[in-house]
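Ticket 4471: requesting a sanity check on a complex prediction with S-adenosylmethionine. Repro inputs:
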Amino acid sequence: MVRHLYVHIPFCPKVCPYCSFYKEASDRNKTQAFLDAVLAEAEMESGGLQPWTIFFGGGTPSALSTTQLQYLICGLHERMDFSQVREFTLEMNPATVSLEKAKALLALGVNRVSMGVQSWNEELLKTLGRVHSGPQARRSYHILREAGVPNVNLDLIFGIPGQTHEQWLDSIRQTLALEPDHISAYCLTYEEDTEFFERFRRGEFAPETERDAAFFETAMDAFEAAGYGHYEISNYAKPERECLHNLGYWRGSDYAGLGPSAVSTRNGWRRKNVADTEAYTRRVLDGQDRFETLERLDTESSRLEKLSLGLRTREGISPDLLDATKLEKLVAHGLARLSNGSVSLSREGRLLADQIATELL
Ligand SMILES: C[S@@+](CC[C@H](N)C(=O)[O-])C[C@H]1O[C@@H](n2cnc3c(N)ncnc32)[C@H](O)[C@@H]1O
Ligand code: SF4
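Returned structure tokens:
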């Protein structure tokens, strides 16, 4: 039985110059057909699917209107069994939050909101090309709480061009002052096919590896001191507030993905939907094949994936996934530890997580 459902909503109020997720600026003319395609795809995928977790990601799911969200979520309800859903997350951009929408989402069963704050500094928000200000993000957070959203994650980005240590510390402090249940702190990556990548290539932005490692250490210290467990390289949670949906991915569970660019992993097969909203919509509604790629996951690729994802988590991986000599070396260098039958990275190891994964693969 598949226990995790992902739905990709590819619309954003404005496209950010650093982001490589599949998305496009919102276009009212395309939305209704897109929603119908997702529901048609849900119907095709519903056999053997009884979700414990649902994640609406993007793009920006909250770019849909309240009526469109109601149409989509009620439509999914009619097509699959929601009785065992424990966590239902929806990603929101602070510019698209309203009390009416938040209350409607709660009534539809959403019990977790993940909001992209990125930074509380106006200058850095401008650098990132965000559509919202710091005060607007704070207002949106309070609206979510006023509506009664019980579980809120805030996304932060560090390592932004020109960001100082003081600015990062200030973003951390302002985030902690709101007491979210969960914090995701991502180091900015220069993703291919983004405006930031081009500027990086032209030399307008330079790599600042040491600064970013120091920012990462500051985040670990501050969030852990405030009672947030560091349960994955980029993720911190209050006790019992870890994201169950993402834990499912990191543990190698099967999942179903709906929408353009969404990936499904079921029964040893991985399929990726075409990353083009119009093509996706047309193909699904015309009953044609919607996949961009389809691959069989052999034992070796499953092992490598479990290793690279699991090693980034606090719970770690089974030592069987690792070559014994490599494991001994990691432990001897103080980069990993073996306890209760699982291997996890030490604090020093977490600082070098990407290099360690590259060496092990
Ligand atoms: C789909 S977005 C979240 C919801 C909404 N679209 C928004 O931006 O507010 C997922 C998160 O990925 C992170 N992200 C996107 N591109 C990134 C990049 N190049 N480097 C680091 N983090 C990135 C951001 O923190 C962002 O909030
Ligand atoms: S960061 Fe969020 S709002 Fe910005 S383009 Fe990416 S998905 Fe859209």
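Notes from triage: The first strand starts at residue 2 and ends at 9. Leaving this open until the requester confirms.
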